[in-house]
Amino acid sequence: MASSTGAGDQVRAACASRRTRLLAQLPPGAVAVLHTAPEVVRNGDSHYPYRHDSHFYYLTGFTEPESALVLVAAHGDAPARSLLFCRAKNPDREIWDGFRYGPEAARAAFGFAEAYPIEDLDGVLAQLRAGAAAAPVDLLPLLADMRLLKDDSEQAIMQRAATISALAHVRAMQHARAGMHEYEIEAELLYEFRRHGAQGQAYPPIVAAGANACVLHYSANNALARDGDLVLIDAGCELDGYASDITRTWPVNGRFAASQRQLYELVLAAQSAALDAVAPGRPYAGIHAAALNVLAQGMLDLGLLDKNTCGSAADVIADKRHLQFYMHGTGHWLGLDVHDVGAYRDLGAADQPSRALQAGMVLTVEPGIYVRPAAGVPEQFWNTGIRIEDDVLVTATGHTVLSAAAPKSVADIEKLMP
Predict the structure, then answer these.
(1) Which pLDDT tens digit goes with each residue over 47-78?
(2) Which of 311, 24, 294 lies closest to 146 in space, CA to CA?
(3) Alpha helices of 131-279 — where are they, by DSSP H?
(4) Are residues 332 and 196 in the same domain?
(5) Is the pLDDT of residue 3 over 80?
(6) Which domain holds residue 47?
(7) Are residue 325 and residue 386 in the same domain, yes or no?
(8) 139 phi and psi, to 5 degrees?
(9) What positions belong to coiled-coil segments (predicted)?
(10) Catalytic positions, written as ranges
């Protein structure tokens, strides 16, 4: 994120390049406006911690509220223009709220040729649109496609974010004990995020012990982790605007029970198969298919599903019987948003097939299994939820697991834990 010293040279150059690329895709003379996120009142005169709009930050590197970006595409002899609008300098408000750039300092610090007070936006827009040669343009689909491919600077930030989050998961494993509350374990994560310079969490952490791990978006984080429970933690930090997203599942007492280990090894095998499907040119949908094939066979082999009734793994998938134990996809795009923008299908093709992976894409790979009490389901597996999630960069030759510093084999987890 930007500070009072402005955007770094690399960020400033990257944002300028993105604006140039976006402007080149607009019709001649088009005028497009992109606002940052508003401040939101929490209660009374207290606001939620401010977080900029991701699209706006991607193009500007600017993090102050009450800001807007105006893009004017080239037309005839008129060159393309990028105009930043932001709050005026106000020494009195800075005493209360802290530093603000003002247009002149923002123009220099963030590499704009033009910057104006936000109060001038309507007047300047009226002038620009009076001579515009094209209708207003929807920037969002164009930005979504651009943001899917991370440049070198983005990849470096995301690697650092994933490493910080991996260290936080390690800390949680090392400090957890039976009898602790979920929120005590959560506190270890948040401490490690901030200790390493992350600005905060990318999303509310899930710290789910025992049966709570069968709730996909569990958020209470207030139950006791009892001896014999597995703890599922889905948590990642945000660093310089970019999200990480890691899930690990482990026994709070440091040792997997036999039934827990069977389910865990199944999910780990499913993730391994899914990771093998991550390579440039391969279809995005192939990641889920690879994981699902392994999980469906495992459900039959472990007796979660009856082979006599359900047939083969292919039958299980065709009849959607796996949904009883695995009801979500195997990942999502990752970037400035934890569920990042970008279509999962090739919207330009008539039949819209699964999008082909490209070097520079970053995604999560996160199979799981969630066993609730039910007739016909072996009791030793009841109330067990397991998910294993990593952040993965597609490379020119395959992929790199950005979150590899978080242990996930049974042996490595048990060795790490007290």
Answers:
(1) 999 999 999 999 999 999 999 999 999 999 99
(2) 24
(3) 140-148, 152-175, 182-195, 258-276
(4) yes
(5) no
(6) 9-143
(7) yes
(8) -80, -20
(9) none
(10) 45, 217, 234, 245, 328, 332, 339, 366, 370, 387, 389
